[in-house]
Amino acid sequence: MILAVAAPVATALYMNMKKYILIFGLFLLVAACRQQDAAPVPSTWEEMVAAGSNTTVHLMMWQGDPFINSYIQQFVKPRVKELYNIDLQVAGGQGNQIVSLLMTEKEAGKRSSAIDMMWINGETFYQLRQIDGLYGPFTDRLPNAALVDWNNPFIGIDFQQPIEGYECPWGNVQMAIIYDSLLTPQPPLTMEALQQYVQENPGTFTIPNDFTGMTLLKAWLIALAGGGDALDGPFSEERYRKASALLWEYVRSLQPYMWKGGKTFPDGPATMHKLLANGEIHFSMSNNDGEVDNKVLQQLLPPTARAFVFSSGTIQNAHYMGIAQGAPNKAGAMLVINFLLSPEAQYHKLQPAVWGDGTVLDRNRLPEEWQEKFNNVPGRTYAPQRSAIDSLALMELAPEYMIRLFDDFRKEIIEK
Amino acid sequence: MKSKLSIALFLCIIVVPIMISAAYSLLYSLGLTGLLSQGWTLTYWQQVVTDGNIWISLLYSLAIALSAMGISLTAALYLSLRHKAALQQKTTAYLLFLPLGIPAVVAAFFTYQMLAPSGLLSRVSYAWGLSESAAQFPSLVNDSLAIGIVITHIILAIPYFTVLFNNIYLSENVADLEQVSNNLGSTRRQTLRVIVIPLLLKRAMASIVMFLIFVMGSYEIPLLLGVSDPRMLSPLIADKMFRFDLTDKPEAHAMLLIYLLSVIAINLFVLKRTRLYAS
Description:
- Chain A is an alpha/beta fold.
- In chain A, about 45% of the residues lie in helices and about 10% in strands.
- Chain A has helices at about 1-35, 45-50, 65-85, 95-105, 120-130, 155, 190-200, 210-225, 235-255, 270-280, 290-295, 330-340, 345-350, 370-375, 385-390, 400-415; strands at about 55-60, 85-90, 115-120, 155-160, 160, 170-175, 175-180, 285, 305-310, 315-325, 395.
- In chain A, the strands form 3 sheets. In chain A, strands 1, 2, 3, 6, 10 and 11 form a 6-stranded mixed β-sheet that branches. A 3-stranded antiparallel β-sheet of chain A has the order 8-7-9.
- The interface between A and B is large, with 40 and 31 residues.
């Protein structure tokens, strides 16, 4: 019976074999011919403007927030079109998708990437540096980079790694816990107070099993290790073991009182915002301290929503724009990134009604009229003022801490 | 000649790419390819096989698929045999076809909106005084018994199998066979048990196996309605494949191969059983 089926198939395959080999060969030939080396990057800015103008730039970025999408589509796109006649094409994709795309391209030996630039954070920066997926150094080529607050360690250092010009800072944020002041008039500001609150109000607290959740755990890890710069520097197994033992003990003390009995965890802040809005949980969180204003304006959270930072501190970090090593249009990407660093673009983004994303510019380096504008940005309504939480900012730790936290959160908490 | 060409094209378009992908995964999982590869090693396979997560996930996915399949087939058999006349009506047929066009992610979302502690049922229960708060409502989504996942698959599968059984019933002239069986003195129960149900199931076996594999490999539904542990196969593998630690990728490829081999084993097992049954 099997032979009865296999015989004609084999015959058909044999008869078509030559044809398929020919087609496959042609396909490889065409694919090889399409391999193009990226154009050389001009040396002066004038040449850069000339080379990057009238081109198309492909940007890959997370598109999960209507305000951010609107900022790019309604503000950035028209402005780069107007300034340089650049057609900015935006494709959806975040961290792991960007890494996967560039990794696959490299594994396939493709020299010219499908994307020119991408929005990344420290996590993705670490991964892309591992696979040599970033072009650079390039930030010293951007005129507006002179306005960046490079002395701020939260901007110039990413995951304890100097950025060395391989990514350009775009915004600066600090993790904040979001709550509904109607449900929780007095939010727990310390880890001890949170423990007490969770035990008294079971099912109202949880941690997302993603980058944001691990960022919270990192802040707690630092606090339990002694606070401040206790874990700064390269990864230390010994320091991690000591601090993480305390961390898991603390999380386990919360676990039975967590949402769903601590047996399952939401996949990210978006789910948590919904649970908070529905009243299922009392706390959500975000890596962007200004997100509560943004979400209230989007009517995803009620106007009674507020945000706070634990007195032991939360992680502050920057997010960046990177250029793919194989970007076919590096000059165009640099024009766009330079525009994103301009006072005009940074000021627009800073406004809570637009996005509410912190600036990476040093206000003292700005022209006077811009300094005045930046100092008079319409204030935040629901989020704490930056000046009030700056002193509670903690540095990102070396990437290995994040790897271990992801693994151990699963082993010590989820699977126990 | 045409059929031979079709088979050849099928092999080239479907089988060959899968075989190439499987070979690539094998090389990746053995450390023989990949950007961060450090050469031949069995470490990733040892890690995956001894870790246990893949086996738990495989059994968990199979249990969910069998539960959803059992309930869906029972309901579909009941509907197709009990309401034959109604199924011939245009409105009923239209209503049955409607859920077939719903994407999995939308169905999962509907289930969530209905069954979550803040969902519609919970609100109705609260309004009627059956529960005092959302927290008191039983956990029907994101629960380790996978109730939400099973319900969603059942909603998607029942209409499909009902239509399928009804079509088989008509095309195979099952009504005539029933008549003969009754004339020979069988009771209705005997006729159903010995003739009608086995015939319908046997004719639908390919679709049933496909459904089983489809449920086992589903991604969006367990992602939205599942728990963090245990996880179904696709979320487990995707998590390994795209997580922060890039050195985990070879393990994800090893998991993919185990999953592929499991699917082939299920196919072969069912094929063998079906042939035995036929003979």
